[in-house]
Amino acid sequence: TADSKLNLQTVVAYNHIKYDVTSLDPINTSLHKYAIIKLKNTTNQTQAAFYWHDYTAYNYVTFNITANDTNYKEYVIDLSGNTNWTSKSAIKIIRFDIPLGAITGSVNKTVSIDYIKLAASSSPASPLMKFNEKKNNLLSFTEENNKTEGRESLILYPNPVENYVKINLITADRNLKMKVIGMDGQVVFESSGTHNEINESLNQRLFSFKPGVYVVNIKDGENQYSQKIIKKE
């Protein structure tokens, strides 16, 4: 990585970045309908591929990319109509091959990845998944609308959590609205009030949450912040 980007140097055919899906961060193919990647392609190749693997076989779709690019561009892969994606209940691996196949004239060139998202729409307000440059953790959860003057506006800790979590939110608004959303898109808990009140109400219910991944959304007037928590067994 360099300059908060993931850089792939093309040295062999089918250069790729791969993510092994964990049980704590499962992919819901009925919710995650778009794969979105922002990259800069300095090779002379014009095609890439997005792969996924369940416990049986690989499937993939190809998409066009700009060759010899000097700027980053966002590419959106619509998976909502692909039955090989929507029919899957257990995705084991996802993978981008960039560029795809033959690399004549592209050896030692670079493809730079700014971010990757799996999203419910082609223009999500906040991504579900993104490359986290701080942890070099591909497809880690992070939120673009969770920043204030370069600082994290919403932090939840400890994380993963058991039966207690501390909400650290940079805000002076006393009329906050909080929703906790499961990975199936269902709201499992709602609360409103001051910073301390929503923190206390969440901890009163946290013990009843099933183990898994949840997204905590807090609305502060016109601003909205999101952060993932992992509920341990």
The rounded distance between the terminal residues' Cα atoms is 34 Å
Biggest sheet statistics: 4 strands, antiparallel
Pick out the low-confidence regions. Answer: 124-145, 147-151
- Average of per-residue pLDDT values: 79
Strand/helix succession: EEEEEEHEEEEEEEEEEHEE
Helical content band: under 10%
Shape: elongated
Which percent band covers the strand fraction? 35-45%
Number of helices: 2
What topology, given as strand order, has the largest sheet? 1-8-3-6
* Overall radius of gyration: 19 Å
How many beta-strand elements? 18
The class by helix and strand makeup works out as: mainly beta
Description:
This protein is mainly beta. Helices cover 6% and strands 44% of the residues. It contains two helices and 18 strands. Strand 15 and strand 16 form a beta hairpin. The longest helix has 11 residues. The two termini are 34 Å apart. About 12% of the residues have low confidence.
